[in-house]
Amino acid sequence: MILEIDNVELYFKEKRILNGIYLKAETGEVTGVLGSNGCGKSCLLNIIFGSLKPKYKLVRINNKPILKPLFQTKLVAYLPQHNFIPGALKLKTIFTIFKVSWKDFINDFDSFSIYMNSKFNKLSGGERRLIETYIILKSNSKIVLLDEPFSHLAPLHIEKLKALISEEKQNKAIIITDHMYRQIIDISDNIYFLKGGSSKLIKDLKELEDYKYLNMNTFE
Ligand SMILES: Nc1ncnc2c1ncn2[C@@H]1O[C@H](COP(=O)(O)OP(=O)(O)OP(=O)(O)O)[C@@H](O)[C@H]1O
Description:
By secondary structure, this protein is α/β, with parallel strands linked by helices. Adenosine-5'-triphosphate binds next to helix 1. This is ABC transporter ATP-binding protein.
C-alpha cells in the first residue's frame, strides 16, 4: 500500500501553518517526520488521520483519492501526542478492548506483568506512553501514525520499541515523528523535514544541519 498526501494548506485564522506538503509512506517502510517546535508535525498527522480539516488536502492510497476522513476507513491507527486511554480502565481491559494480546506484550515487556489488574492512571507517564504506543503499533490497521512515541521512555524501552516498529513495518506503513531525532534517523527508511510550512525529503543527513535544525558538525 502506498499512502500519499499533498496539496495541504492549513490556516488557523490568518496564520498559515502548512503549504507545499508532499509526503509518501508505504508498507514495509518507516517514514520519519522531523522539524522544530510548532512547525506543524502534529497538525500534519492529524490531517492524514482526518481529525483536522485543512483548507485543502489530497490523500491518495495506491493512487486513488480518498475523499472521506481516513479514520472512517479503519485503515489507520493514530497515537496522538496526548494520552488517549481513559485512566480508570484496568490494563487487562484495555488490551481486550483494543484486541491486542496481553501475553505478547508481557513477552516483550515482562516487568509490566504485575500491572495486569492495575488501573491505567496508576502507571507512570512513561509506562502509560509505552502501553499506548504498543496498542496503536500492534493494531490491525495498515497505516500507523505515531506522534512522539519515545517521549518519557527509558532507554531500554526505546530500544525494544524500535525493534517492534521494525517488525511491524513488514505489514504496515508507519509514519513517525519525535524530537529524539537520532532514534527517528535510526528506524526511518525515509525522512521528511518540515520547515516554513513545507516538507522536504532528506537525501543527506547534513541537510538537517543546513536547515538549522541541528548544530553544524552533528554528523561529523
Ligand atoms: N487548534 C489550534 N488553534 C490555533 N493554532 C494552532 C492550533 N493547533 C496548532 N496550532 C498552531 O499550529 C502550529 C503547528 O502546531 P503543531 O502542534 O502541529 O506543531 P508541532 O510541529 O507538532 O510542534 P511540537 O514539536 O512542539 O509538538 C503551531 O504554531 C501551533 O501553535
